[in-house]
Specification:
- It contains no helices and eleven strands.
- By secondary structure, the chain is mostly beta strands.
Length: 125
Amino acid sequence: QVQLVESGGGLVQSGGSLSLSCAASGVIYANYVMAWFRQAPGKEREFVASVSWRNYKKTYADSVKGRFTIYRDAAANTVTLQMNNLMPEDTAVYYCATDVNPDSSPGVVGAYDYWGQGTQVTVSS
């Protein structure tokens, strides 16, 4: 099994930046996809960004393109989400997730097998 632990959440003013980190306890195999999702109060969990461990392909939600960047560190089994130019609508609990059999769109919540506990990001204005 893969255990995921998120860190780096906090309170930031609109226009500011935060960096979220996801640490995986087990080995991340070459075919895995690592992703970030978020869930705001009263909303469904939504896709933010993903990275393929094998070919490093990245995918971003339209709402975060140009503002967020996902990074992979295979040696450390970590994934980082750098969030810049944050807006109040980015406020949510952010979750790291792993898809061990990525044969579908990276944005499908139900395709992911392991989830972290989440880290709160709050953007004030």
